[in-house]
Backbone:
């Protein structure tokens, strides 16, 4: 039987082009298509949001008004106005507060987990941080709305507890696990030989950390903070639920603000497809896409720069 | 007699290793920093523990067999969450069907085929950016591409595909890591037997990496189940009093349901909200815990 098979395939099989060869070629092609899918989708995202938003950019968009006006009144029939300054102020204030809250703690936690903690403690802390990162944003929003809100009202004796402070803290808690994980990875990437060399010179652990590990891993830490900013910038549900949604430049931490992401989430459902309002919301989407793209690209370059050095 | 620097320990053998003031100071500082960073870690972790405790205390009593398996009633101010649970399962299942084959193919390409050239760098960059795109932008993409352009309307299909695009980087990265963990010698042995590339991947690489891939898939399930923004405008309904019967139906979903009853239903009792939040977070955390446990179990079992 074996002889029969060899006999039959021999004349055709001069360059090993059997069934397996063709399957292999087909799979190579399919896998390549899968491989470039990420590129296809990222371009697709840009193309489709631009396609829906283009009508606004070439039409009613007034760049100066767009970035300098506080008046976001897209539904007015007489005099619609599309100023996103208030929305940018909202996003910036909430993200800024979130970073002030979370950057020191997440970097501190990364140093503790990566350099001080050992064995079981280290493993369980890592698992805990990973679980924190998994909590859905709508649950965070709910926490802001129903746990933080009464807490802030009680503590500071203010009439409303949702606003910059509330969403800033919530966003900080959300971004912290991600920053901790990435920062810890950055510290882990510092070669052990550096630590050993410093320890051999008689340095104590904290001297090793401050003089050797942190300077060597600083690019990774910067990237971690950048990605945290990106996360805060793009977060939607938590900000929508915990920031109060009044468009203004906040003057106190208790003021209510409206973020760019929250605006899209709150208004897209009511905007008729193809209307100026609808297109303006897609333009906000383009703005978000471009800014997060730049943040991610910068973070990537910062890490690459570290690797080359 | 005190030990001083430069003594070399000649005059006092027994004090050679005793602590100098400098040693003492370093020791104290060391302890201080350890405590400081430990405290920071604690401050990060404790509030979340408290929050979870509050959810458990207030939501726990609401959860019952009836709560999980009955329909919402009285304008969503009473009743259960059954259609939302089923809807979330639909969304997760359909988006997995879309994202796993593409994600695994992409990971196989990156791990087994991709040369180190500009295209591969571009793919890696695209993956990073895809993971960083805000969820609401994914929602806009879903509306533009699947709801309007592809003509799926607001349906499970459109929502699931939007979710699939969003979780794709997760699947790719997890799969690529587990494929790369398979030692090169395994592949070389197989090639030397005359196997083609695909035969090697199918019979040697994938079986050795399958558990790592599963870990990534479980993670992406948990992410899919918790997302709200991408499904708000692509397929999740405020209230849909039936179970979906095909992928072209709209559906309720757990995450969306929590958003709706906590912001848009004025009379919804706290118990209902906390119950829904607790169910959702339990679902997500259980899946993550399973994935973490699975991973550490595998690490212990690995033979190479």
Residues:
């Amino acid at each position: 039987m074996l002889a029969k098979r060899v006999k039959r395939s021999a004349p055709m099989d001069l360059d090993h082009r059997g069934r397996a060869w063709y399957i292999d070629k087909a799979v190579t092609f399919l896998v390549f298509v899968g491989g470039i899918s990420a590129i296809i989708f990222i371009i697709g995202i840009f193309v489709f949001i631009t396609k829906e938003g283009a009508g606004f950019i070439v039409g009613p968009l007034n760049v100066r008004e767009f970035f300098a006006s506080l008046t976001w009144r897209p539904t007015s029939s007489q005099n619609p106005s599309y100023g996103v300054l208030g929305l940018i102020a909202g996003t910036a204030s909430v993200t800024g507060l979130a970073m002030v809250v979370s950057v020191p703690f997440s970097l501190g936690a990364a140093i503790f987990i990566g350099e001080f903690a050992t064995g079981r403690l280290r493993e369980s802390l890592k698992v805990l941080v990973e679980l924190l990162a998994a909590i859905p944003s709508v649950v965070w929003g709910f926490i802001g709305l129903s746990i933080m809100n009464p807490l802030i009202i009680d503590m500071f004796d203010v009439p409303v507890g949702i606003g910059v402070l509330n969403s800033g803290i919530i966003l900080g808690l959300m971004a912290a696990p991600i920053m901790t994980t990435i920062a810890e990875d950055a510290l882990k990437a510092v070669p052990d030989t550096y630590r050993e060399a410093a320890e051999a010179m008689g340095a104590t652990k904290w001297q090793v950390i401050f003089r050797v590990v942190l300077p060597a891993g600083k690019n990774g830490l910067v990237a971690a903070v950048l990605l945290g900013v990106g996360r805060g910038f793009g977060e939607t549900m938590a900000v929508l639920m915990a920031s109060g949604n009044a468009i203004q430049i906040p003057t106190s931490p208790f003021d209510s603000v409206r973020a760019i992401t929250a605006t899209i989430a709150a208004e897209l459902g009511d905007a008729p497809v193809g209307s100026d309002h609808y297109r303006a919301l897609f333009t906000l989407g383009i703005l978000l896409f471009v800014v997060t793209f730049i943040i991610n690209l910068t973070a990537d370059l910062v890490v690459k720069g570290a690797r080359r050095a | 007699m005190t030990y001083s620097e430069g003594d070399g320990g000649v005059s006092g053998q027994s004090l050679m290793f005793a602590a100098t003031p400098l040693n003492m100071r370093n020791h104290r500082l060391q302890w201080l920093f350890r405590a400081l960073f430990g405290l920071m870690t604690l401050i990060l972790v404790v509030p979340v523990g408290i929050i979870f405790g509050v959810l458990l205390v207030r939501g726990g009593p609401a959860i019952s067999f009836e709560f999980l398996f009955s329909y919402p009633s009285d304008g969503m101010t009473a009743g259960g969450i059954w259609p939302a649970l089923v809807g979330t399962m639909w969304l997760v299942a359909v988006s997995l069907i879309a994202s796993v084959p593409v994600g695994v193919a992409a990971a196989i390409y990156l791990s087994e085929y991709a040369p180190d050239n500009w295209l591969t760098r571009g793919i890696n960059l695209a993956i990073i950016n895809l993971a960083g795109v805000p969820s609401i932008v994914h929602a806009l993409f879903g509306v533009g591409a699947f709801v309007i352009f592809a003509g799926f309307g607001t349906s499970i299909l459109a929502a699931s595909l939007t979710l699939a695009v969003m979780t794709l980087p997760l699947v790719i990265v997890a799969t690529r890591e587990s494929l790369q963990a398979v030692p090169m010698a395994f592949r070389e042995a197989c090639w030397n037997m005359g196997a083609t590339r695909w035969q090697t991947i199918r019979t040697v690489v994938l079986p050795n990496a399958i558990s790592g891939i599963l870990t990534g898939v479980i993670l992406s399930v948990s992410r899919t189940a918790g997302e709200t923004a991408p499904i708000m405008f692509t397929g999740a309904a405020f209230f849909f009093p039936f179970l979906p019967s095909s992928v072209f139906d709209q559906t309720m979903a757990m995450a969306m349901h929590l958003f709706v009853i906590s912001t848009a239903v004025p009379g919804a009792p706290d118990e209902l909200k906390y119950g829904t939040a607790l169910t959702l977070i339990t679902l997500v955390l259980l899946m993550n815990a399973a994935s973490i446990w699975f991973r550490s179990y595998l690490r212990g079992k690995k033979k190479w």
